Write the structure tokens for this entry.
Amino acid sequence: METVVEERVGPICAPGLLASGGNDILSLPRIHSATRRDAWTRYIADNQIEDPNPPSSQMFEHFYLSIEAAIAGLGAAIGPEPLVADAVESGQLVAPRGFSSNGYNYILLSRLPFEDDSRKRNFLSWLRRQFGPLATP
């Protein structure tokens, strides 16, 4: 087992939702993913954020759909940095609170050790290059 990248998450939304400057991303409607129903709760707890009155919310079946809903301006989602980095870089999304570790990693599994197979080492190196600065060395 080899770690490719540590997962870091943060609240993301379309830039227009925060354009007025008065909105905090945590006050926006929340977009949830059915594949990680606890993402918002966990983010709030992990970052020790006081959150007494969560706003309205919508559930989508997968992270991809929740990210697309955020791009469409439906609210704020918890986005894994590796999955939203391109959208943040292009300006489709903003992440005003940044990203923080959530304890998950993207890993590459193999029945046999990586050290014994140059093809596996090369593939792992290639994967890490795809994640660029997000990758675990």
Q: What stands out?
A: The chain has a mean pLDDT of 88. The chain is about 30% helix and 25% strand. Residues 10 and 43 are 7 Å apart (CA to CA). Helices lie at 39-46, 63-71, 81-90, 118-131.
